């Protein structure tokens, strides 16, 4: 019996994946498309989308030293039957700059040491091509720049084509930006900064360059002499090159089902995964195409299903929970400024509405990172937003899935807790009572009281959007529900629909449609009564929605009116 392939969760080395009998999602059909593009290419994708394994695959495919292993690594893949003329045609230099800031020396020393190791490895791998060229003497030199200069001159003189592949091209500088600030970043990437000097040399030295990263910041700072058109990040031809398409997910699940390792219904599993891991789009012209799944989260789910024969208890892998540190870093830059307040307002708006219109920037310098349009673009590049529509030249961006939505709400909770905190364990107990016993009032009274205390400390919180963000941040702790932002119901849009997650919690017996009404602190009793009457009518209208009733089938639907005057909740009633 043929042994089933292992799940490549956490594996980013292509050769190891193929040698070790791991399942490989074939993306080799994109190689001819890459070759048709200009010689210097750059692609931005969020973390955990398979960038490293793709670049590792490219390295093996183009490396002349691995030409005898072509059939071994590519024989059963698409490119094995459709090889290009450039296959195994280059000497390949490979850098992973996420490793370039490790070490005990200065930034420059650590970067040099890493590059020196990689260049030494390159020279030994291709030693047979450089006999009698003084390479042995050069191997003992400690400066990576010396080896780069030698390689450029020697390879060009001998006519050897060179291919540069850089993974995490921006990791080194983004770490510096977040930990050391703009001044040091500027020194590295401008004028005679050592990092910039490397990139200046790269262009004239290599026949082809392919770089990947997660943000366009460094590209702008280092792009002297480069044509910005090399950025293929929003080209529809490469929309699904990273991540998994739904077809690829289905094929993978069928494979493991055929080998007796999956017992659950495939369609049911995909339906369960979609709200959490799917819905990414990276090109305006691909908006009508199938959406893309996050690779790591899909493999996390698959691995759990095979090991436990059930869905994960925590749909969000603990490793991805740390990703919201990017959100924290972006929000705290130049804090206590008007720009900082604008960024917090943007985060609250996205969390509440689930979407935002942005003018997507394809590149910008680090000193402009705090500009609000650049900040919004960075949320997209980090995977915290995705394309979901257009409005003229603007791009409509939305929160891609529940996994990312949790990061927004987690960030907002941490932000609010600094001013007036809730005992989250106690709140979780009340949320369980809300879901299983229908005891909703104590929960909303606690959240409302904390909102009042929070607002008293921070006048800027007052406003309907701030209130909605506050409520959603804390209600999102109830994992029993899928919170739908402004869901359309019976020709209207409800503020909150706590939709039971019946696949994970089949015994939840209560669901909730909430209408939130906010009035200024100066509102009169008569104005409040008119507003409350409107809210009651809206709730009754929503409750008649056939889709909502089907989604909440098997539960008691509560229609709740929450009315606030300024900081104070004055109504908390069931209609």
Q: How would you describe this structure in keywords?
A:
single chain, 575 residues, alpha/beta, 4 domains, 5-stranded mixed beta sheet, 25 helices, 47% helix, elongated
The quaternary state of the protein chains shown equals single chain
Number of domains: 4
Uncertain regions spanning at least 5 consecutive residues = none
How many E-type strands? 16
Which shape, going by the Cα principal axes?
elongated
Strand content: 5-15%
N- to C-terminal distance? 62 Å
Tell me briefly what this model is.
The chain has 25 helices and 16 strands. By secondary structure, the chain is an alpha/beta fold.
Explain what the structure shows.
The protein has 4 domains: 14-233, Rossmann fold; 244-315, no CATH class; 316-418; 420-575, no CATH class. The protein is built from 25 helices and 16 strands. Helix content is 47%, strand content 14%. The longest helix has 19 residues, at 107-125. The protein is α/β, with parallel strands linked by helices and 575 residues long. The mean pLDDT is 87. A hairpin with a 2-residue loop joins strand 15 (556-565) and strand 16 (568-574). Strands 10-13-14-15-16 form a 5-stranded mixed sheet, with helices on both faces. The protein has a 4-stranded parallel sheet with strand order 1-4-3-2, with helices on both faces. A 3-stranded antiparallel sheet has the order 7-9-8. Helix 9 (171-180) packs antiparallel against helix 10 and helix 20 crosses helix 23 (464-475).
